[in-house]
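The material for today's practical consists of a large collection of protein records. Read left to right, the backbone structure tokens trace the chain's path through space. An example says more than a description, so a record of this kind follows:
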Amino acid sequence: MNVKKSKIIRLTISYILIALMIFIVVYPLLWVIGSSFNPGQSLSGSKMFPDNPTLKHYQFLFDLDKSNYMLWYWNSMKISIITMVLSVIAVSFTAYSFSRYRFIGRKNGLLTFLILQMIPNFAALIAIFVLANRTGLIDTHIGLILVYVGGQIPMSTWLMKGYLDTIPKELDESAKMDGAGHLRIFFQIVMPLAKPIISVVALFSFIAPLGDFILARILLRSEDKFTLAVGLYELVAKQFGNEFTKFAAGAVLIAIPIAILFLMFQKYFVSGLTAGGTKG
């Protein structure tokens, strides 16, 4: 009887904690979505469930004559997609090298990547700005993309290396006996088996530029080059915070491509994340 009561208590506590976590996550989302449909403009007059919901804020964002939102959206999508593609390519080759080959400086390289994970990008803002200024990459998307790709390599390399270590090396040896070269083994044997971790790296690399504000604000100066984060901030800052409902509508639309990408990679995501995080 005591065992049964103990089990019921544990289940009750677990459900309470799960409900609490769901509330913490869902509550602010409902506020942002509700605010985007409020007819007013300020935060003080917004309601989670507006009495007279309206789409005028979304209409304003899609009006090319009144807002640059669609241009900012395109900039963010372009930067995120290119960052995702370049990051996956760079991380795949780097992680494969660390996983399959033994060379001088391998351990020190991995240790360096581990240390770099502990240092956030904004800690190197001055160095990034000076480097971009000297190379003429200020106010360019390519400069921002290169910074994002470089920032993704250390963490994602460790993650992908851990996953590649779980793929038996006997497959490589069998392929070599059949006459396959290094590139053929990489593209036709290892990478198809690494789809889960590639999906994880792709998703992380896509989300990071969309959520970044500091680096984009430092490197981008022209309004037509702004990303969504910088553009929406400027939209609110110019009006002294009186455009919060438009800001909320813009924030809701940002989640759409992330949700689509997550649904596309969902079947790979869990296995890739867990396998890559447990094997060193």
